[in-house]
# Entry
Amino acid sequence: MKHLVDMLNRIKVSCLARNLNVKVTKTKLCLKVLNILLDYGYINGFTYASESEILVLLKYPNSIPIMLDLFVVSTPTRQVYMSYRSILKYKRNQFLLISTKLGVLERSEVLKRKVGGVVLFSIR
# Structure
């Protein structure tokens, strides 16, 4: 969880600075999150910089950073749990990433499977 929060903060700061890429620590959770961000079009891609680092390629359509409104919900010291019903009532136009017993899932997948979990972050 600590590495995930660090990765998300590095991505957000790099987007604000308009950097084309950023290096983050390689963990299983970070790789899962990066794969989901890639699938949903929030990043251009990522490559392995070394055995312990990943180079994330940021996306800027029309010279506007996509992930300016990235908000880290759960931190290592404060984990925010949401039930299926709470997620159902949450704002529909936001991208939510939730860690469930089925793995790391996006809001729409969580609603299909009717499970709750720890909300990792949101993007407006």
